[in-house]
Amino acid sequence: MMTITNVTLDAYNILIGLILFVSIYTRHIVNDNVKRWFKVMVMINILMAAMDICTMVFEGTAHPIYSILLPASMFLFYIFSYFVLIAAGIEIMFFIKQEKFKKGFLNVIKVATVIYFILLLLTPFTNFLYEIDENNVYSRGKYFFIALVIQVILYLNLIIYILANRKSISRAKVGVILMFVLFPQIMQVIQLLFYGISLINTGFTVAFLTMFIQSNRDLEKSLNYIEDELDIKESELNEKVSEIESSKLQFIKMQNHTIESLSNLVENRDEDTGEHVRRTRAYVELLAVQMMKNGHYPDVLTPRFIRFLKRAAPMHDIGKIVVPDEILKKPGRLTKPEFEQIKRHAAEGGRIVHEILDGYEDPEYIQITADIATHHHEKWDGTGYPEELKGEEIPLCARIMAIADVFDALVSPRIYKSPMSYDEAFQIIESGSGTHFDPIVVKEFLEIREKNAAVNESFKVIP
């Protein structure tokens, strides 16, 4: 009858242990060490219950196989019964999370473990801790009490560690710790007093179950508190984000206005009305959108790229600030040295862009702006300046800017020339395909010639 009761208890312990083990994976535990050692404890207790069942099944039958299985099961049971206590102690150590007396606590565990395993390894030959007679019946060894003394030492070691850190232990943790320390020991005392009943596994199972339930309660309370705090923080963060976004938009508007004003100032030096920067900005946007819709350069032409390109376009001639007025405003043909001075504006434009924008703008936008300022006079066949880049060596933003800049120069009046007609300008652009300009960019520019002409017309001043 007692055997059936013990087997039933152990079976329940295994079942509850498996449920706990699986449940641990579905719960969030902040401390990974606590979670890890909790799983170790539960698994050891499951194995210990399984070995307890094996000892009861194999005991009392003098079968050759049972004579092997019973000693093996008993040996493993003693191992697991010790290790579940060690795992419980380490679990509590990580649960408390305090360093005081931690080193001493672990050293006692190490020494006790060495002594226990020496005794356990000698037991099959000396009957030190337990004895199995010729009838395959288990009984306690003559020095069985030493195992109990070691367990008492381990519990005292744990109690000392807890007391050393008592000021750091919250009230919520006290009940869980007491359950861990006291309940398995109460079950063991009952088992010692009433020989034949197996309650140690049940003691640990109840302790584990209690800890799991308490941890879930604490977690739910913590999550509710965190959720309330997050709601408050989210509301505060949304307000801050709105303020930042509003400030950012104001800053971008101010920056764009400053850049456009600076670009207009540079253009006005050679007696252009300053509308050149606005017209070219409109041309590059129309052209870039047209190319993106038709699937050209999909890795480069994105809405983000086009947005940066539109903002960067007014800066394409910023380098002209270094060219003397007498050259910019000269009505006649430039001499070779004068043209060399004009050519300086491309490389200087890239340098100025970095001086103005580095550290204050998105790096991608800065690179697009610098590429436009530096390379919008490069030519597809490699005869342009300042670096004589060829083909797709020229950044796409500069290839787009080149057509917009040339087209606007052709159809706009200058101090040294009258404006061309749109048809003449488009013919020149078309004739430059593959030599001056990227053929793909030319093709798409000509596809939207009416839109480009309309942009130019919209900026003309009515007398």
* Mean pLDDT metric: 81
Count up the helices. 16
Give the ordered list of helices and strands: HHHHEEHHHHHHHHHHHH
Based on the structure, what is the oligomeric state of the protein chains? single chain
End-to-end CA span: 116 Å
Helix content: over 70%
CATH class of the largest domain: Mainly Alpha
Domain HD-GYP: 251-461
Keywords: Membrane, Transmembrane, Transmembrane helix
Pfam family, one: HD_5
Transmembrane segments: 12-30, 37-58, 70-96, 108-130, 142-164, 193-213
Question: What would you note in describing this structure?
Answer:
With 463 residues, this protein is mainly α. The protein folds into two domains: 2-230, Rhopdopsin 7-helix transmembrane proteins; 269-458, Hypothetical protein af1432, CATH 1.10.3210.10. 72% of the residues lie in helices and 1% in strands. It has 16 helices and two strands. It has helices spanning 2-26, 32-58, 64-96, 102-126, 144-164, 171-193, 200-268, 276-293, 303-312, 325-328, 336-357, 363-375, 396-411, 422-431, 439-447, 449-458, and strands at residues 130-132, 138-140. It has a two-stranded antiparallel sheet with strand order 1-2. β1 and β2 (138-140) form a beta hairpin. The chain is rod-shaped and about 120 Å long. The mean pLDDT is 81.
